[in-house]
Amino acid sequence: MGCELSRFLKKVDKQVEDGACPKTCPVIPTQTLASDPRMPLTTRQKYSMLASWKAINRAMEPTGVYMFIKLFEENEELVELFDKFKALPRIDGEANDLSGLESSLELAEHATAVMATLDEGIKALDTVDVFDDFLRQIGRTHKRIPGFKKEYFSRIEPAFLESAKMTLGDRYTDNIESIYKITINLVIETLIKGFEMEDFGEISMVETIS
Ligand code: HEM
């Protein structure tokens, strides 16, 4: 009898180790095993994301500024959506000259605000409801921007990945890149869902990032 029990427990241990433990596992409660269908990252990937993000968190402003410079380099027309950037001086009036932006205090402030939002979202990856509510709310606030289209959210993906690569250097491995890709796509999908939400009440940027 004792032998049968220890054989059974060994089998369960192995299944847990292999990540193949069935949802009806009698040892670990179901809630801890059933994954949320809204979460595309595995527990291990979430852990790696949070660990890697700590380095970005220590360099929010330069990472954010680089991200926006890349966004505007690749999508010049988007500068026009930002009242505070479009008026910045351009060398010889050239539309694609972004040199004024790089040193702009306005861009540093905006980039830091957007990075703080990403930071809050990423830190909430473990609580899908909090992640979802928070980023939907941010997505929804973009409705008040004249000319903004929900498709614009996905333009941030390459710029986000390039800026993470710049900050992480050697730590930006292929594995980390694929985890950052899954994460930014989840962020973008959630922002879009928020943007698509019906309006009930006033939309304010301030209430969401305070
Ligand atoms: C990761 C994706 C994004 C996040 C988390 C995000 C977040 C935010 C936040 C927190 C603000 C308010 C910040 C502030 O007032 O300084 C904001 C404003 C804004 N965002 Fe986004 N955003 C994202 C992507 C984009 C993209 C791709 C565009 C491209 C057009 C964009 C355009 C704007 C504009 C035009 C404003 C208003 C700026 C102003 O009124 O001063 N956002 N965004």
UniProtKB/TrEMBL annotation:
> What is the top-level taxon of the source organism?
Eukaryota
Q: Name one Pfam family in it.
A: Globin
Taxonomy, top ranks, is:
Eukaryota, Metazoa, Ecdysozoa, Arthropoda, Crustacea
Its keywords, alphabetically, are: Heme, Iron, Metal-binding, Oxygen transport, Transport
Q: Name one GO molecular function term.
A: heme binding
This one is known as: Globin domain-containing protein
Record flagged with keyword Iron: yes
Mind telling me which residue stretches traverse the membrane in this protein? Answer: none
Can you give the residue ranges of the Globin domain?
40-196
- Of which family is this protein a member? Belongs to the globin family.
Enumerate the InterPro entries for this protein.
Globin, Globin-like_OT, Globin-like_sf, Globin/Proto
The yes or no answer to whether the keyword Heme is present is yes
Q: Spell out the PANTHER family in the cross-references.
A: BLR2807 PROTEIN (PTHR46458), GLOBIN FAMILY PROFILE DOMAIN-CONTAINING PROTEIN (PTHR46458:SF5)
